[in-house]
Amino acid sequence: MVIKPVKKIGYYLAVAFLILYFSSWHTSIAQEPDYRYFYRVYFTDKGDYKPENFSPSRLLSPKAIARRIKYGIKFPDYTDLPVYPPYINQIRSLGLTLHNTSKWMNTALFKSITPAPVSVIESLPFVEGVRVVKVPSAKSVKPDKLELIQGVNNEVPYDRQITMLEGNFLHDSGFDGTGVVIAVLDGGFSRANFLPCLDKLRARYGIRGTYDFVLNSKNVYSYHYHGTAVLSVLAGDVPGKIVGSAPGANYWLFRTEDVYSEFPVEEDYWAAAAEYADSLGVDIISTSLGYNVFDDPSMNYKFEDLNGMNAFITRVADIAVSKGIIVVASAGNERDNEWLRIIAPSDGFKVICAGAVDQYCTISTFSSAGPSADGRIKPDNVAMGVDVTAQIDEKGYIKISGTSFSCPILSGMCACLLQAVPEASPSDIIDILHRCSDRANNPDSLYGFGLPSMKKAIQMLQEKIMLKPGIDITAGPNPFTDHIDIYFREPPYSPLSVEIYSSTGHLLYKKIITSRDYISKTLRLNDLQFRNQGIYFLKIMTDNGTSVMKVVKIND
Q1: Domains in the chain and their CATH numbers?
Q2: pLDDT of residue 23
């Protein structure tokens, strides 16, 4: 019997989604067997799947499609096609269990209780290769990479990590990451569901969801506190105690690091998380993780692998950027160790590699050195990574150190910039972070392009992307439905007062921004409560004068 191609494709796609949701992404109820061997299988192709045979909505979520449209990214493409189900099923028939897949890399991660017949798998005509990514092995004597480095100087101001980047100007101008979605990929988020500094985040349901890609479950709160510390640096908000870099953003929390061992399989978990983040419409991936050496030394990377093209996780991270996601990764804490250099995925061509400085902007002794193996400037930028204010439990606040914490500081600042200039692409953000930094004209292998100024960044970004209005102040869209954007020819650098009146003179809306250094050329009013269609008057007052304009509201 001959199966018509369209029907065949529809059948296999249905099988793919069944495998995805019932094999890889389910929450186990019974005790999972002791899978001790993991294998990454590379496939030669995706069978008879072709992008042109599918409508975009069958391959991508609406949010993933929206991001691609926003940035003019062609879709769907080959990487958007699922791994071919018949290939997966044939390998499963050999007695292996599927853990997850990567459509971007066209790989599948299989596991087994006993060693698998690798030579048999490699002999299959659709298999390009097999890599053993985890075996039973003694834990390395190397210190736990997620163990927190306790800070030593409790006199460092709690907000120094923000003010040294001039991030306080972004926050004071109303840009705290609101509307931006960040995925945090880490080793666990112990007590993050109770942490006092995250009370505001939880109260507004800012933690949008969680997933553990190590065990394929939703619980991320029963493991390490490293991700908790990272999240507190991003989203902590207690006046006078802690200020996150993006307290207004929304978050997805993903566990991709197996804290009990160190093997390349964790790169596969990371890949699954990155692809899921894409489907969720995430804007930024912040990952304070990195890979170079493993419990089994035969699996180690060599420094020459850190060329942006060899490491599995690095290739995945760059694909994520090609889908419109900003990826920020820690440079690593290796400069005072034998390795010395940056670690994957921070060697990615489009990955923002975050180094660490102290409160005086001096590079830390541990911050991994660049360049990449192929000679590119790395790290990209630095932020405070010594004596950073964080919280990991209900006892209080601590000072911690590591590029694990300069990374979320930069990630959060990127979120604030995206809020201020939503049209900015990952390439725009990377370019501006390089250009607005204190070593932009003389980058090196320790600081990269240096410490970025958020005050310069927003101005340069808006100058690059936004059209300058012909008059001092204008507003749009006009007519409007649910929001109004106010455009300034030059930043007002003063307190702002905005009022909206009905045609009969009744005050319906008032917004006051007290910052004496409002640094943006735009102000979005998206909290408008009045619903009636009609003519309204918008009044804008700054130190430079008052402007009044007529606007029209229409309903969808």
Answers
A1: 5-134 (no CATH), 149-422 (3.40.50.200), 473-553 (2.60.40.3080)
A2: 41
